[in-house]
Structure formats: C-alpha cells, structure tokens
Amino acid sequence: MSDLFATRDWTATDCPGGSREQASAWEAPKDSTLVDYWQFFSSFLRNPASVGALVPSSVSLAREVIAGCDLENAEVVVELGPGTGVITREILRRINPKATFLALELDATNAAKLQRRHDGVRIYNESAEHIRRCLNRQGRKRADYIISALPWGNMGCKLQDRILRSVFGTLSEQGKFTTFAYVHTRWLPTAHHFRQRLRKHFAEIATSKVVWKNLPPAFVYRCS
Ligand SMILES: C[S@@+](CC[C@H](N)C(=O)[O-])C[C@H]1O[C@@H](n2cnc3c(N)ncnc32)[C@H](O)[C@@H]1O
After folding, report:
1. What is the pTM of this model?
2. Distance from the alpha carbon of residue 12 to the mean position of ligand 1, in angstroms
3. What is the CATH number of the domain that holds 41?
4. Quick check: helix, strand or coil at residue 182?
5. How many whole angstroms from 110 Cα to the centroid of ligand 1?
6. Which domain holds residue 112?
7. CA nearest to 55, candidates 127, 149, 179
8. Ligand 1 nearest atom to the CA of residue 81, by list position
9. 118-157 pLDDT, tens per residue?
10. Continuous segment of H or E residues that includes residue 143
C-alpha cells in the first residue's frame, strides 16, 4: 500500500475509477480567460518540469487549497508558484486588507503579468527557496500561512529540501503550510521523499479528498 493512503481514511471515491461522475466532470477555471490559458501553456512550453501542468488549476482546487485557512485573521500570507493567479484570486477574496500578502513565482513572464493585474500585492520573480529575503523586504520575518502550488513530484530531492527549509525557516510557530499534489505523481520517488519530509517536520498532516474537477486531478496537504 502506498504510504500516501496511510495518512487518512480513503474512500472508494478518492481512488482512480472510484467515481466516474466526479472523474468526468473536469472543470475549467471560471475566472481564467483564454489569455490566461495561453499564458499558462506558454510557460509550460518554456519549462514543462517547473510548471507541471498544461492548464491553470480549477477554481474547485483553488478553493480546496484555501479551505481551512483562517485567512481573514492572518497577518502574513505567502503564496509559492502563483502562475496565472487562480489561487491568488481566491486568497485575495478572503484575506484581511491590512494583511501582508506576497507571492514568489519563478517564471518571469507570469510574475510580471500577475504583478500588473494585482498592483496592491507584491509578486517577486524569485524561487521559493528565498521566502525569507522576500519577507524581509516587506519588513516581515514570519508567515502565518504559506500556500504552495509547486509541482513537488517534478522536482529533484535537493531542490525540494531547499524549498522546504525555506518554508520551515519562515513559518510562524502556529503557522500552517498548505500545498497540493497531482494524483498521478504519487508513486514517484520524489513524491515519496516529499511526504517523508512533511512527516519529519510537521506534527499534523491532513490530506483532502481528490479534486477530480482539475486537470490533472489533485489533492491537498494541510500541515501544521
Ligand atoms: C502547477 S503550476 C501552478 C500555477 C497556479 N498556482 C495554478 O494553480 O494554476 C506551478 C507554478 O510554480 C512555479 N514554480 C515552479 N518552481 C518554482 C520555484 N522554485 N519557485 C517559485 N515558483 C516556482 C511555476 O512557474 C508555475 O507557475
């Protein structure tokens, strides 16, 4: 049995083939425009491994990612890998206007376009390894929430470790780390390495049901 299954009680509908109805109902991100699709796909062509998907996340996945995050009362929120901004929009809908919100995006084109779209938010064209220096530029040291859309399964273990060190080093004591993983990558050695690291560093790890309305289907890790 994969150790992913050991983290919670999985039901038949969580497993591939468990629910045809859910599996067939892929949902396009409603807020994404055709331009967003093209922009996202272009970034995939530039760097397939680091983008990790052909199209932006669905609104269903974006909502599952932030479900359980008390964003209204958070002072500092960091997003990793915002891409064309599907999750960013959901965060901005919920966050306290006085909170500090910043995002780190490796793709320069996506970072610049997202910055133009949300001029009140700071989007850094930086790797997620550098959360601390981005927080410091905003006069902050720690984050209450770090919300990630990074494609962990596609990353080498060393890069995963560097990014996770950056996360552990900047999350406040009561802080929460939320991220998603694609179902099809769960048997990769890199996905196994990622789960081991989460278990080593977090007291509690919950996994969501699979969000079938996403291409590719994904599930969320909530770590505290
Ligand atoms: C799977 S896409 C998710 C994009 C968007 N958040 C969404 O849900 O549609 C992964 C994003 O992470 C970015 N990324 C990959 N590696 C990164 C890194 N080391 N630091 C910051 N961003 C990174 C990619 O450029 C891409 O925009």
Report:
1. 0.87
2. 30
3. 3.40.50.150
4. strand
5. 9
6. 5-223
7. 149
8. 12
9. 988 999 999 999 999 999 999 999 999 999 999 999 999 9
10. strand 143-148
